[in-house]
Design goal:
heterodimer, A: 515 residues, alpha+beta, ten-stranded antiparallel sheet, B: 245 residues, alpha/beta, eight-stranded mixed sheet, globular
């Protein structure tokens, strides 16, 4: 079903008259050319290129005669063509027609919306190459820009059909004999860079002996880029992950400021730490409600006595709350304060990079190298995690586990921020060790927060006169969360023991951790 | 992958036209579809303009000397492939008889390409044979076209008993009337009288229409060359009734 294609262009990128192409092919095939059609080819992908990463391309192709979604492998092999109507972008994969194409796209895009990645009008003419039985054995597409200045010159695409690959190769050879050359990658030819989402450790090389400020400025710059790039999608509410990624960048910025106190000027602490706290707090209410909405189908699956439909009033309540909270968030992001924060922060980072920013560091005043700061920060964060964790007993209040979770996050951020100057393998394994503990603490704290929020929502809904069925169903959810939290608490001792086992400690020590 | 077989002990009842039209409709919806023309007469293969030849013949397929994948052919329609007929399929019973698990070999062969397809249609030759037993093992649904005549009901009765007796997990049997002429009293009576307790009977009745016969001239499925015709609508209704979820 999926067959290779080859694309060819004139050596000078010039026009390819259909007559010339037909003549070249008619030596061995019966050629019938379809009518010329202007098609609009809209390339779709998620903001973070999940389809491209999965080796897929998805085009929404519209012409006067048809509207189709065409899902292909990135190497050009067509997998599926589905007729559609009235699709608007951005949209989640669940807006696509039910069927295998949607299943494939949904698996790759997950919760992210499909957005327009490229949009071009092309004049397309399809040629069918037939054998002596009048069976189509090769498809050829002549494709030229409908407007001047398009990114891709006129192109001929030869599409092989299963069981007739030899004929496709023959057709491509005939065209090559007539002077056509293989086309380079098109405008969507996988040569775009990733958006600066600031995710994962930086690959940029940094000299471990360089001043720590240099590394911190680089990382903070990446996080700022990630914030900026997510703002438009966040404001347009395209999908929940714009806000999520924005918040991650803010959180990383805050942690980096904290981890870098010994090397950064005092103004970072006095001005920027509070400013980014404000920004983080601004985004929290909507994110919390997003998490509820995303988790609702899973939560509905927990219900035993109640029916999933009993949660409908709860879902409606969440949507109302989210609408109200989003208004505040949008107001905040359109405010002069936010604009000023971004502009000033960019300026500050530029000065930091150029070492123009002066002022005594919060720490001991020495010029720390990136490596020294990395080891110091990781050691400090690790020591805190171990100290707090060792003090937790069966009688410890939930707040202690919450505090430990925050310290674990700090250690995790330290491992990410200083990734360019610490041992790669040791860091990777240390993150893996830490993840196990973070998962358990995350389950514990999420249950705590969700339970408290459910009680608050129930109060609000009761005051608004909701039906008892919804409250009973929410009660079941609270019960489930209780049990979840108990299980997480039981798992804690084992997870902490694994984190502090000798092999894990050795790895952490190699990174500067507790000695 | 869901496997649907068009099957009847009798010949000339509309198995091939049904398989070809429904396979086309499945593919048109975007389902990756394969039609295996198991009938050595090769009518479905002819309708798709594909040469009725498989390298090494049925023997090489059944004995796995040649991979099934190598024998597949694209049709002129997106998402629809064909495994062509070969005249040597007339000996498929003998080839199957020589294999281990002789009643499950066709299902095993289909497993080798199942990742590539969402729906597979088997267009079966008219008989009760080892090939039929293989088809029953391999299928999720047995689509049985019936001409509304008394003898058809008798045949249908034989078929449902055969399926029930020969299978641990029998496929769902879905009968439907084909080549029906409502002007004939006998046809109307038979359509009313068919027992619906032993097998599902589709509501859609495919009439005897000259457009369906014209498939052999056009060498294409009805919805491809006459998309707004009554015949095309009938097959669309039938597909809506029998298509897997």
């Amino acid at each position: 079903m999926t067959m290779p294609t080859s694309s060819l262009q004139a050596a000078d990128g010039g026009p390819l008259p259909v007559e010339a192409v037909s003549d070249a092919l008619s030596a061995e095939f019966g050629v019938s050319a379809g009518p010329r059609a202007v098609v609009r080819r809209t390339r779709l992908d998620t903001f973070d290129h999940r389809l491209r990463s999965a080796g897929l391309t998805l085009d929404h192709v519209t012409s006067a005669l048809a509207e189709q979604l065409v899902l292909s492998r990135s190497d050009g092999t067509a997998t599926s063509v589905v007729p559609v109507s009235g699709l608007q972008w951005p949209a989640r994969a669940d807006a696509l027609p039910d069927g295998p194409l949607r299943d494939v796209v949904a698996a790759a895009s997950d919760i992210r919306a499909l957005m327009v990645a490229a949009d071009e009008k092309r004049r397309v003419r399809r040629l069918e190459l037939r054998n002596a039985d009048q069976k189509t054995v090769v498809r050829v597409e002549l494709d030229e820009p409908a407007a001047r200045g398009a990114a891709t010159p006129p192109t001929v695409t030869v599409r092989a059909m299963r069981g007739y690959e030899d004929q496709a190769r023959r057709a491509a050879r005939l065209l090559a004999d007539h002077g056509l050359r293989s086309a380079p990658l098109g405008p969507d030819g996988n040569d775009e860079g990733d958006p600066a989402d600031g995710s994962g450790p930086s690959a940029a090389p940094i000299d471990p002996a360089a001043p720590a400020q240099q590394l911190l400025a680089l990382q903070l710059g990446r996080f700022l880029a990630a914030m900026r790039v997510n703002v438009p999608g966040l404001l347009d509410d395209i999908d929940t992950e714009f806000l999520h990624d924005f918040r991650v960048a803010v959180r990383r910025t805050r942690s980096t400021l904290k981890l870098g106190r010994d090397a950064l000027p005092e103004v970072m602490r006095s001005r920027w730490e509070p400013d980014f706290k404000w920004l983080g707090d601004l985004t929290t209410p909507v994110r919390d409600l997003d998490v509820y909405e995303l988790d609702l189908p899973m939560m509905a699956g927990w219900l035993v006595a109640a029916d999933a439909a009993d949660l409908d009033p709860f879902a409606a309540h969440l949507r109302r709350r989210r609408t109200a909270e989003r208004r505040s968030l949008v107001r905040g992001l359109r405010s002069a304060r936010f604009q000023r924060l971004v502009a000033d922060w960019e300026q500050t980072l530029a000065e930091l990079t150029g070492a123009e920013l002066t002022g005594a560091p919060v720490g001991d005043g020495d010029v720390l190298s990136a490596e020294e700061l990395a080891h110091r920060s990781i050691r400090r964060a690790h020591r805190r995690v171990v100290r707090i964790g060792e003090a937790i007993s069966a009688d410890s209040p939930g707040d202690d586990l919450h505090t430990l979770r925050k310290r674990c996050k700090e250690l995790r951020y330290a491992l990410e921020v200083f990734a360019p100057v610490v041992d790669k393998d040791a860091r990777k394994k240390a993150v893996s060790d830490l993840k196990g503990l973070q998962d358990v603490l995350g389950r514990f704290q999420d249950a705590e927060v969700q339970r408290a929020a459910l009680r608050l929502f129930a109060d609000e809904m009761m005051a608004a006169g909701t039906v008892p069925g919804a409250l009973l169903a929410m009660g079941e959810l609270v019960g489930h969360l209780d049990a979840d939290q108990d299980r997480a608490r039981e798992d804690f001792d084992g997870a902490f023991a694994r984190f502090t086992r000798p092999a894990s400690e050795r790895r952490m020590k190699a990174l500067g951790g507790r000695s | 992958v869901k496997v649907l077989a068009t099957y009847n002990i009798k010949g000339g009842v509309g198995k091939t036209t049904t398989a070809v039209n429904l396979a086309y409709l499945a593919a048109r919806e975007g389902r990756r579809t394969l039609l295996w023309d198991l009938d050595p007469q090769g009518a479905a293969t002819f309708l798709f303009r594909v040469r009725p030849r498989v390298k090494g013949g049925g023997h090489a397929l059944v004995t796995r000397r040649r991979p099934m994948e190598a024998a597949l052919k694209a049709t002129d329609f997106d998402n629809l492939d064909l495994l062509p007929a070969d005249f040597s399929y007339r000996n498929m019973d003998l080839d199957l008889d020589d294999t281990k698990k002789r009643t499950r070999r066709l299902g095993q062969l289909l497993d080798t390409v199942s990742a590539d397809y969402d729906v597979v249609f088997l267009d079966c030759p008219p008989s009760i044979s080892l090939v039929s037993e293989n088809v029953m093992h391999a299928s999720d649904t047995l689509l049985v076209p019936l001409i509304p005549a008394t003898l058809s009901l008798r045949t249908f009765d034989q078929l449902t008993r055969f399926v029930a007796d020969s299978e641990e997990n029998p496929p769902e049997v879905v009968a439907f009337f084909s080549m029906a002429d409502r002007r004939k009293r006998l046809h109307r009576d038979v359509i009313e009288a068919i027992p619906r307790d032993r097998a599902r009977v589709a509501d859609t009745v495919v009439p005897a229409l000259s457009l369906i016969e014209q498939m052999a001239e056009h060498r294409a499925p009805v919805p491809a060359f006459a998309p707004t015709s009554r015949a095309a609508r009938c097959y669309e209704q039938l597909w809506a009734e029998v298509q897997p979820a």
